[in-house]
Predict the structure.
Amino acid sequence: MATLYRDIPVETAAEDAWAALRDPANVARVFAGVLIDVRTENELRWVTFADGTVIEERMIAVDDAHMRIAYTVVGGRFEHHHATVQVVAQTPQQCRVVWISDFKPDERASAVEPLMDAGCAALKRNLARQ
């Protein structure tokens, strides 16, 4: 199983970053530039990437106490996919966002990693604007 781990420093308060990330419908704003749209229905969301690709995700958990969300990609080219995004406070005006993605098959890493890196840059840029 492949694992991608990213630790993103963000120039915003942890509570503000969490407020933006905890709402599954807000993902297109947080990742603007990489994502262009999101549609939600119950625990499912469909995210549309800038190239028009649509991915279905299932929200597994929204944990306010630990400022952590867990989700999985449904169907598509994965045998298995699970990811978490967690906000960690650093100072009153800085936090880190830790994003971990585990998936099979390992070969999908060549497609997932550049998207994840672009997502990290977008998240850092868009959350710092709060």
